Amino acid sequence: MLRTIASLVLAASSASPILAVAGAKIDASLLPDTTYTVKVEKVIDSRHILVDMDNGTSTTLAAGRPTVDFSRVRDGDSLKLSTSKGTVLVFLDLTK
Fold first, then answer.
1. pLDDT at site 22
2. Hey, where are the domains in the chain?
3. Which residue numbers in the chain have pLDDT < 70?
4. For position 54, what pLDDT does the model report?
5. Per-residue CA distances from 89 to 1, 34, 47, 58 (Å)
6. What is the pTM of this model?
7. What is the CA radius of gyration of the chain?
8. Quick one: pLDDT at residue 23?
9. Which of 32, 36, 64, 68 has the fewest Cβ atoms nearer than 10 Å?
């Protein structure tokens, strides 16, 4: 019985770092430059959005060009966007 409890505690403690990553917020500058499909968690302002990535992490993205404007984006929208150096160069709202 004691051995079973010890095994369960060991398994739970080794799984906790994996579970912590799932809800983690990462620095946008660490994202590889590519295209992502994301869900908007919150529109901060017309130049910044907080998004949930496909892998369960979240990050705040900034507009990378003067033509990128998030004012028509709503919380909960799905976006396909291209990033460079952690900023959004272009996006398409998949919700509309």
1. 55
2. 24-93
3. 1-23
4. 87
5. 58, 10, 11, 18
6. 0.74
7. 18
8. 64
9. 32
